[in-house]
Amino acid sequence: MDLKLNNKRVLVMASSKGLGKAIATEFAREGADVFLTSRSEKSLSAAADEIRHETGNDRIRFSPCDMSSADELRDLFSEVRQTMGDPDILINNTGGPKAGGFDGVTDGDWMHAFEQNLLSYARTVREVLPAMKKNGWGRIVNISSSSTKEVIDNLILSNTMRAGMVGLSKSLAREFAGDHILVNTVGPGRIETDRILELDSVTADRLGVGINEITKEQQSRIPMGRYGRPDEFARAVVFLASGANTYLTGQSLVIDGGMLKAL
């Protein structure tokens, strides 16, 4: 299948590692121009070198940015336009918010999660929409969580902000479908990333058991019997953001190896 991504301009947020890096790698493999960003310039430089080496695609750029900062986001998009041009494709992605139940989070935690995990997505979309509308083509994929389908205990901030993200995506999909801008949400289940290691560690500490015990128990809940790989997740995202996808919009997909029981 031709994904029609050669020379498309792609901005992948939070892409120095984990799911973001895996997504950027798949876009590079398909011949796209890829712009990486995260908070660490050192990590970005290393990721860009690895992607160039793995894919043979030298059109990989990067610049650091804290997604919770409106000023840094404006500066980022200014640099993206100067060095690559307006993005044809936006992949919104951030690190997950602080773990904890309702009694364990403060007003500051709520505000940080809102700015990092919801408002930042609205800000980035605001930056890319004018050019996408002018060009009559665009793809936006918002990376969320399996909590959009089935809440996860002890992750109240994620449960709340990710649900808002789905509402944002659905509204955008309906509002801009006539401009041929397709917007979808994709949530990971248990994919092997630093975030899952962090959550398993938090659970292990809370229950007073070893992390291997938690990992084994979590994997037993997945019909496929294992955690997913970042590249498996990335390929689904890249299809949704590609020219091969011409009609699928406004959807909220979870990639979880069959883990969720919710319909």
Automatic annotation (TrEMBL):
The keyword Electron transport does not apply. It comes from the Bacteria. GO terms for molecular function: 3-oxoacyl-[acyl-carrier-protein] reductase (NADPH) activity. Keywords: Oxidoreductase. Pfam families: adh_short_C2 (PF13561). Its EC number is 1.1.1.100. Belongs to the short-chain dehydrogenases/reductases (SDR) family. This is 3-oxoacyl-[acyl-carrier protein] reductase. The lineage of its organism: Bacteria, Bacillati, Bacillota, Bacilli, Bacillales.
